[in-house]
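R.M. (postdoc): so does anyone remember the format we settled on? I'll just put the structure tokens first.
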């Protein structure tokens, strides 16, 4: 049922939600690079003491996109399946909102940091 969501009604969400998460991630990644922080996911894995604070800050950025993804997927499920599958909605929301955020926040930080480092030398 997850693969079937690629086509059909409401396919716009498959583009809009990752795009919104990516924009938020780029903004956060730029801020991370300006402040000289390591890439987000790397920092979360390697520094367990500050992990909860990192997760809270990331959740603050991405929570609206995540809940919007949940809501739109529930609407999709009601239209197509006439039933709500909460676990599938959570999987789709995570895939559309959280995964792009994590990937692009770290990637942006890394690219900007390298670019800034190259300009200094």
């Amino acid at each position: 049922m997850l693969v079937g969501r690629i086509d059909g009604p409401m396919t716009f969400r498959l583009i809009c939600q990752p795009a919104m998460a990516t924009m938020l991630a780029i903004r956060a990644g730029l801020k991370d690079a300006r402040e000289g922080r390591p890439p987000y996911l790397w920092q979360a894995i390697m520094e367990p003491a500050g992990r909860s604070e990192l997760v809270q800050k990331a959740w603050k950025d991405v929570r609206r996109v995540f809940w919007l993804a949940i809501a739109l997927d529930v609407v999709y499920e009601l239209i197509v399946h006439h039933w709500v599958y909460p676990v599938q909605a959570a999987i789709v929301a995570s895939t559309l909102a959280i995964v792009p955020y994590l990937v692009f926040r770290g990637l942006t930080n890394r690219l900007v940091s390298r670019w800034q480092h190259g300009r200094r030398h």
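R.M.: ...and that's the designed sequence above, right after the tokens. Also worth knowing: The CA atoms of residues 102 and 119 lie 26 Å apart. The radius of gyration is 17 Å.
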